[in-house]
Design goal:
17% strand, binds magnesium ion, 544 residues, GROEL, domain 1, binds adenosine-5'-diphosphate, three-stranded antiparallel sheet, GroEL, alpha+beta, single chain
């Protein structure tokens, strides 16, 4: 080989970016993602309309929904989508915040890279800063208990502020708080909320304000026979997961019956079995039967004659929720059914909503599962109300699980920035610069809240920092009055978990992206070839 001749380790035409170039591209992609969701942040943020190739539309303000729906290709950009998803899974709120913060951490890192600070130094500085930031969050947090309903309501409302549903936030907030408190359990001596215990049922139509909390469960089934009562008061409900039918033999069998009399006898026998089942149900005192499986026509007839309300093919998850709501047991065999298996509800009623007939099981005494019926003018509204409710349910649950809240509206972020600057001086060395940049990056939250409200963001930020320097830790951006104000007084508060998780995932993503100095396409890059199958020999492996 001639000296100086380039050595190709990748197949011709393979895509590879390395060094500064790779890093710059990754940072740019991540910043682009952050900028895309930035305008939705806060109560005065805008919504996005997402249109897919089939023309289906989603209108939302929810960061994670926007990022999930966007058709993103760049690998580094995808990592920011992951940040948002993690935030959503872990805490259910703060998805925009997390993505915006990650983008800003990278923007600030760029300044340092331009000053020739090595990425690993930035990474370790950012890690130190994140640890310190979470510690400070703990220090400035305010305790909350599940008795403090008015405070919990403020937490729910803060999450709802930024949604298009904010005009109904009082009502939706109350629903969220009541639902969470109703299903809250104690595990290991600590409050715990299982979201499986809260059923969300969306029905297009009516107004947002018709959305209601039901102390019971909505079953998406109608009664099986028109002769059955439409309403049953003081319902005693049997939950079954077997069919009220004659058991079919497991193998194909044929029975030869010779004379008409025997046929009659055989039919009669079948009838008797079904009749006995219904009699058994009646004898234990049930006036409602909900089964996961089928009900024979004849059984329907007998049930209806006894005045028993019955619905069939109820979803397994609904039957399980019902058991928790009405305090009954799911019975697997008719012989096992006893009066103590029955659950109770004030009322079981078939209600027609739009085109659908539903069974409402309501007025349960102390239900451990509840339902929220979501109403709204159009499908898009109902969907956005659901997303908003999910956010507010999550923040209320996080608040009572952790027992700690922090002021929102950029107050916590501003305080963290202040404290990190003090801390950076103590750390010294090259990391000091990175910690200072981390502090600057946090200020993107109050700055964006102000920008989105059409305010003079720089002016507000200067005033806000002044207040914090004077010890007013709870001051954030009052986006309606356009000046710094006490967020606790305004009731703008958030569970600590939202902030901690945003710091965690934003830092993780930023650090990971910063450490990449080589982006190599790991498949033949003709552009059209399918992705490499596992096990297939890689022809484009790099050696560094
Ligand atoms: P995310 O997806 O990150 O939750 P949001 O659009 O819900 O984004 O905006 C959340 C931000 O809005 C939080 O920083 C929160 O503190 C702030 N916020 C909510 N209500 C108010 C308010 N009334 N005044 C100022 N900031 C608010
Ligand atoms: Mg939010």
């Amino acid at each position: 080989m001639m000296p100086g001749q380039p050595i190709f380790i990748l197949k011709e035409g393979s895509k590879r970016e390395s060094g500064k170039n790779a890093m710059q591209n990754n940072i740019n992609a991540a910043k682009a993602i952050a900028d895309a969701v930035k305008t939705t942040l806060g109560p005065r943020g805008m919504d996005k309309m997402l249109v897919d190739s089939l023309g289906d539309i989603v209108i939302t303000n929810d960061g994670v929904t926007i990022l999930k729906e966007m058709d993103i290709e760049h690998p580094a950009a995808k990592m920011l989508v992951e940040v948002s998803k993690t935030q959503d899974q872990e805490v259910g709120d703060g998805t925009t915040t997390a993505a915006v913060l990650a983008g800003e951490l990278l923007r600030k890192a760029e300044d340092l890279l331009n000053q020739n600070v090595h990425p690993t130094v930035i990474a370790s500085g950012y890690r130190l800063a994140a640890e310190k930031a979470k510690q400070v969050l703990d220090e400035i947090s305010i305790p909350v208990t599940d008795n403090d309903e008015s405070l919990l309501l403020k937490i729910a409302n803060t999450a709802l502020n930024s949604k298009s549903a904010s005009t109904s936030k009082q009502k939706l907030g109350e629903i969220a708080v009541k639902a969470v408190l109703q299903v809250k359990q104690i595990r290991d001596g600590k409050p715990y909320v299982d979201f499986d215990d809260i059923q969300l049922v969306k029905k297009q139509g009516g107004a947002i304000d018709d959305t209601q909390l039901i102390h019971g469960i909505i079953v998406d089934k109608e009664r099986v026979h028109p002769g059955m009562p439409v309403v049953v008061n003081n319902a005693k409900i049997a939950l079954l997961n077997f069919a009220l039918e004659i058991k079919k033999p497991e193998f194909d069998t044929s029975i030869r019956i010779e004379d008409p009399e025997s046929i009659m006898k055989f039919k009669k026998q079948e009838e008797n079995i079904l009749k006995e089942m219904v009699e058994k149900i009646k004898s234990v005192g049930a006036n409602v039967v909900l089964t996961q499986k089928g009900i024979d026509d004849l059984a329907m007839h007998f049930l209806s004659k006894e005045g028993i309300y019955a619905a069939r093919r109820v979803k397994k998850s609904d039957i399980e929720k019902l058991a928790k709501a009405i305090g009954g047991n799911i019975v697997t065999n008719i012989d096992d059914l006893t009066p103590s298996d029955l659950g109770e509800a004030e009322k079981v009623e078939e209600i027609k909503i739009g085109e659908d007939h539903l069974t409402f099981v309501t007025g349960c005494k102390n239900p451990k599962a509840v339902s929220i019926l979501i109403r709204g003018g159009t499908e898009h509204v109902v969907d956005e109300i659901e997303r908003s409710l999910v956010d507010s349910l999550h923040v209320v649950a996080s608040a009572i699980e952790d027992g700690k809240i922090v002021p929102g509206g950029g107050a916590a972020a501003t305080e963290l920035a202040l404290r990190l600057r003090e801390y950076s001086a103590k750390v010294g060395g090259r990391e000091q610069l990175a910690i200072e940049k981390f502090a600057e990056a946090l200020e993107i939250i109050p700055r964006t809240l102000a920008e989105n409200a059409g305010l003079d963001a720089i002016g507000i930020l200067i005033n806000l920092k002044k207040e914090h320097a004077e010890g007013k830790k709870t001051y954030g951006v009052d986006v309606f009055k356009g000046k710094p104000a006490d967020m606790v007084e305004l009731g703008v508060i958030e569970p600590i978990r939202v902030g901690k998780q945003a710091i965690n995932s934003a830092t993780d993503a930023a650090v990971m992206i910063l450490r990449i100095d080589d982006v190599i396409a790991t498949k033949a890059s003709s552009g059209t070839s399918p992705p490499k199958k596992p096990g297939e020999e890689s022809k484009s492996e790099s050696e560094d």
